[in-house]
Amino acid sequence: MIKETEIWRFAAERLKLNESVMLLVVAESSGSSPGRQGFKMVVAPDEMRGSIGGGVMEVALVELAKGKIKKAKGKIEAEVIEQVHQKNAPNASGMICSGMQTVLLFPLNSNHFSAVTEIIAALENGQQKQLLINNSTLIIIDPEANSPEFDFTKLADDGFVYEERIGVKNRLYLVGGGHCALALSELMSRLDFHITLFDDRNDLNTLEKNEFAHEIRIIESYEKIADLIESGADVYVVVMTLGYKFDEIVIRKLFDKNFKYFGVLGSRAKMKTLLRELEKEGFEKEKLAQIRTPIGLDIRSRTPEEIAVSIAAEIIAVKNGAIVDMRKRSMI
């Protein structure tokens, strides 16, 4: 999220000076293409921000964009460029990793300043907006319920329509604000997650140091946590409270909700005991087994920073649909 914001801030700075810059967007990709759909960069004659995948193909497109900006005496036309990452192929990108990608080159000028500032506001405020780009227009609208995350259509006469849902795509809730939460907040703030942190203590030095979470909320009791975290296919919950009894409260209160990811930090022995006790009380075994604990991938992490890496890796694996070792699910 931070990188995405920086790209648009750079564009706004240049547009405010009445300069023209080029927006490069990976509109679609397949195979082992280094640039994935939605990757962006903004290119000015002397500087740039972001990336569309790197390598020689990016260098070539950056130089093309710079040339268009420098040589343009009038209106710069938008362009669609298809690249094949294979040697001697038509439209070869210079890379041999296989795969294909389509990149939009869209010129931004002072007329787009308002839309760009709207994008920045949405990113900073945790809002969702729908970005629409065609050959001549870039606009921002409020998304509808069925708005796609990405969509690209090529039209006749070299026309195109690109659509993307921007802003918050994933919501991460951290319950507990200690050292591990601080380390995880810093790491996840660099990814596409809006981070909300809850704790029932208002005097933690780790909360004072946490400049990475988008929201920090001091609550009266974890008994009320269910009122603060909603179900959702884009919701990720990490429980890392002060101790076992608080973890139990949070699990009980959130058990009936549905999340993309629900993990609890705790020792294997303690969490095994807790889950078995809950099962004996009548909590559904299959749903208890969906709680990821011990949390994170097993990389023998020790420090808060290492623990944060293991948790972040597991969350990313779940988000991207990767296969994660499920042996730890046999705890109950």
> Uncertain regions: pLDDT < 50 for 5+ in a row?
326-332
- The quaternary state of the protein chains shown equals single chain
In total, the number of domains comes to: 2
The helix-and-strand class reads alpha/beta
Strands of the widest sheet, in order across it, are: 3-2-1-5-4
Rg, alpha carbons: 23 Å
**N-to-C terminal Cα separation, in Å?**
37 Å
What is the mean pLDDT?
88
N-to-C SSE series? HEEEHEEHEEEEEHEHEEHEHHH
Figure out the total of helices: 9
Overall strand count: 14
Beta strand %: 25-35%
Describe this structure in words.
The protein is an alpha/beta fold and 332 residues long. It folds into two domains: 166 residues, no CATH class; 161 residues, NAD(P)-binding Rossmann-like Domain (Rossmann fold, 3-Layer(aba) Sandwich). 32% of the residues lie in helices and 26% in strands. The protein has nine helices and 14 strands. β8 and β9 form a beta hairpin. The longest helix has 17 residues. The protein starts with a helix and ends in a 13-residue tail after the last helix. The C terminus is likely disordered.
Defining key terms:
Rossmann fold, five-stranded antiparallel beta sheet, alpha/beta, 2 domains, 32% helix, five-stranded parallel beta sheet
How would you summarize the topology of this molecule?
Blueprint lengths: L1 H15 L4 E10 L9 E4 L4 E3 L4 H17 L7 E6 L15 E9 L4 H13 L2 E7 L3 E4 L8 E5 L5 E8 L3 E5 L3 H10 L5 E6 L5 H5 L5 E4 L13 E8 L4 H11 L4 E6 L3 H14 L3 H4 L15 H16 L13
Parallel strand pairs: 10-11, 10-13, 11-12, 13-14
Antiparallel strand pairs: 1-2, 1-5, 2-3, 4-5, 6-7, 6-9, 8-9
Helix pairs in contact: 1-3, 4-9
